[in-house]
Amino acid sequence: MLSPLSTNIKFATALNADGRLEVFARGVNDGVYHIWQQAANSAWNTYHWLGGVLTSNPAAARYPDGRVAVFVRGTDGALHTKSQLAPNGGWSDWASLGGEIFGDPVAANLRDGRVIVFVRGTEGRLFYKVQAPNGIFTDWIGLGGQITSDPVVALNADGRLEVIVRGANSNLYSRRELGNGWSDWANLGGTITSYIAAGQHADGRLAVFARGTDYALYTKAQVAPGGAYTANWTRLGGHLTSNPTVGRYSDGRLAAFARGANGALYQIQQASPNGRWVEWRSHGGYLTNNPLVSRQADGRLALFVQGNDDVAYYSSQVSVGGGWSAWIILERGRSVLGTPFKALAVEGEAPAPVEGEDIMPEIAPGTPVPDLAE
Fold first, then answer.
1. Contacts 24+ apart (CB under 8 A), 125-134
2. CA-CA distance, 207 to 257, in Å (whole number)?
3. What are 27-47's pLDDT values in tens digits?
4. Angstrom distance (rounded) from CA 126 to CA 134
5. What is the pTM of this model?
6. What do you get for the CA distance between the two ends of the chain, in Å?
């Protein structure tokens, strides 16, 4: 069976009310496809088509009443949405939320469960819509700026929302909720060459991750939960050829994932909650897109990638806090062991990964630098 997915997709995930993880992606016909677990933490169903004609990758979130919703950019440039009619149930028709957006929408949840959606508007300015208490979305609200990445959204330890972007000068910027509005944009420095990822340390401090001009991964974190960020970046090394994605283990340790120079997926993680970072390790494979890490209902992390055969693959922790499974084709009844990605046959492309190969580490992790441009 040929994959129904488009090339170089970006996955979106959401947990159903009953704990089943659901994955959304753009299809070869530019419609939305989704696939979900047959039961919480279990095997996967088959792909189903949700329709639509996309001009972006999808975003997904769960409403306070348990219904999952998906958000996309349509052919008219506006934001469109489709949601379950009831928790774990069938789906509504598509509805327009208006606007003129660029890039991919980003959906997140406020501390009370309401959904908020951020987009890049005209001239690179940041806009958002949020559910009112009655469940209806507000009009568009502008936050200004001139951004050159899709935004990243995170909740501070006190529940205040924080949005993080790359600016026109390639610096990192953040803006957070105040009592009655938003702070000004804060320049966090750096020269960013990727989109940004964010995570939260076990002690509540937010941390941001990005690729620098030397292709290495860098991070900086809040000095205290909800506070300012450190002045310096910490270099975690590596040679990234994708955007990073960040997850948190059940014990609070952060882990970052990215594609390496040989196309394989690599991981670096903390040795202990809030602690130092250990060396990079390979998950194998040959990726053609940006990986995504998500969390299953039982707390196990799950990885989603697209191989050079355009097929989606999935790997999850074997146990909460434990090691990782072999790669599995993301479709019921199709599983493989080892490195399942199709071998490359195009002259001049990088070779398929070799068992045990580890080309990502370059220097010891933890070397601080004042700016990513150095």
1. 126/151, 126/163, 126/165, 127/99, 127/101, 129/79, 129/97, 129/99, 131/63, 131/64
2. 15
3. 989 999 999 999 999 989 889
4. 24
5. 0.89
6. 48
